[in-house]
């Protein structure tokens, strides 16, 4: 189960109490994609950094993304890279087209809405400050993703109480089994 898994954190990275960090600690073979600048992301640079991380994998990895990391996964899928992912677990995708997005979009807008060329699952909240329920559902439909709504969970991050997130890990492990079957 601990094959190639790449963790794609979002804007400002995922701190030590974030669910992605807990997953990394429990699954040491999983790796976080490193970015030069988490505070001022540039789409082209982040896509190239993800492409290099995928190239370093033994096989097609599963992408475990949060927030802007979800949008990165979609931009990478549309980038023309010859590399492939086995699937993408996309939690709380930020709406970079929304006026509430916290920084300039630095090339991430407009939202990439092409169908993803791999299985994907979008996990969304009903009260996320960075994406409306309707937009999250629209992204899932456009990407060809299965959609799971987890109720009022904010941005599914540390501030919303999602540090150690056993339910999220359960959903991820089920997703990994499905894409590897």
UniProtKB/TrEMBL annotation:
Recorded GO MF terms: hydrolase activity
Record keywords: Hydrolase
InterPro entries: AB_hydrolase_fold, RBBP9/YdeN
A UniProt-annotated Pfam family: Ser_hydrolase
Matching Gene3D superfamilies: alpha/beta hydrolase
Name the record gives this protein: RBBP9/YdeN family alpha/beta hydrolase
Organism of origin: Massilia suwonensis
